[in-house]
Design brief:
Layout lengths: L9 E2 L5 H11 L8 H6 L1 H4 L2 E5 L2 E7 L5 E3 L7 H10 L3 E5 L1 H9 L3 E5 L5 E5 H6 L6 H13 L3 E4 L2 H19 L5 H16 L6 E7 L2 E12 L2 E9 L6 H12 L6 E3 L7 H8 L5 E3 L2 E5 L1
Parallel strand pairs: 11-12
Antiparallel strand pairs: 1-2, 2-3, 3-4, 5-14, 6-14, 7-12, 7-13, 8-9, 9-10, 10-11
């Protein structure tokens, strides 16, 4: 048995992709964090380490508060893994409803809803077509943009679009310096690497181009058989309607066999929460912090 934080644990790296891809394919996760690309791109930000308990793979990380945590055990015997983690006094972050219910039923943990981390789940077709009056404001903003700017979309390719996307990202980086925001800085670092290594990480993307300038881009991947997840989305903050446009184009052009689109969490930011709710999610994917006892 290898316990997380044990000296024989190892940092997550690219060589772990085949095993983690297999485990996630078996799990069919609903939670947006549970993809190899997401873990790999934030491996430095959260110091992700891999350990083993029996047949289970355990991913541990470090929160912004400096406290260690682990993600739900992957594969193997869940009871054995939870018992060992309990002995190590670990907290599980990102537990879904089924894992939280199991922990409650077996009286091995305290489970707390983590509202700031709930994922927003949408019908992909609705985001692609924006039907009816509910999306009237979104369509108006896109119309405002298209009246003033000719544009076209292309499937993202690092060889073709990376430099232009980095230029757009630099605009965001300069704006982020107006206030200290560590999580945004870490997200921008992850986005830079995602743009460079998208094919290697099985990420797919779309770019919106006006003239010769990339005005918006989005990158994501398949989360489970019915759901895609959008990990990164940036639009020129000075072009009204560009963000609504790239949101629509990502849903319309990619993962057309998926019924749902997961657009991750709001991190408790009021503006981001309002924006995500305004797109009328069909469900909020609950996540729990599980304190094993």
């Amino acid at each position: 048995m290898m316990i997380p934080n044990h000296p024989s644990s190892k940092p997550l790296d690219i060589s772990d992709k085949p095993e983690l891809d297999r485990l996630f394919a078996e799990l069919q996760p609903q939670v947006s964090e549970l993809t190899f690309a997401n873990l790999y791109l934030f491996r430095k930000a959260h110091d992700y380490q891999l350990g083993r308990i029996g047949g289970s793979l355990i991913v541990t990380g470090c929160g912004y508060d400096g406290n260690r945590y682990c993600l739900p055990p992957l594969g193997g015997d869940m009871k054995e893994a939870l018992t060992a983690l309990s002995n190590d006094k670990m907290t599980i972050y990102g537990a879904d409803e089924s894992l939280a219910q199991h922990c409650r039923d077996t009286h091995i943990a305290d489970c707390t809803e983590d509202r700031d981390s709930f994922d927003y789940l949408y019908l992909r077709e609705e985001l692609a077509t924006l039907p009816g009056n509910r999306f009237h404001k979104k369509k108006n903003r896109i119309h405002y943009f298209t009246l003033r700017h000719s544009y076209h979309t292309e499937i993202y390719s690092p060889d073709i679009h990376q430099a232009a996307c980095l230029s757009l990202l630099e605009t965001w980086r300069r704006m982020s310096r107006l206030e200290q925001n560590r999580s945004l800085d870490l997200e921008l670092e992850a986005t830079v690497e995602a743009l460079a290594q998208a094919p290697l990480l099985s990420l797919e993307g779309i770019v919106a181009i006006s003239g010769e300038t990339v005005v918006a881009f989005a990158l994501g991947e398949r989360l489970n058989s019915e759901t895609a997840v959008c990990h990164f989305e940036k639009a020129d903050p000075f072009l009204e309607g560009a963000s609504q446009l790239i949101n629509r184009e990502f849903a319309a052009c990619l993962f057309n066999d998926c019924r749902y689109l997961n657009r991750e969490q709001d991190l408790g930011e009021a503006g981001l929460r309002s924006a995500k709710l305004s797109y009328h999610p069909v469900e909020l994917i609950k996540k729990y912090r599980v304190r094993l006892s």
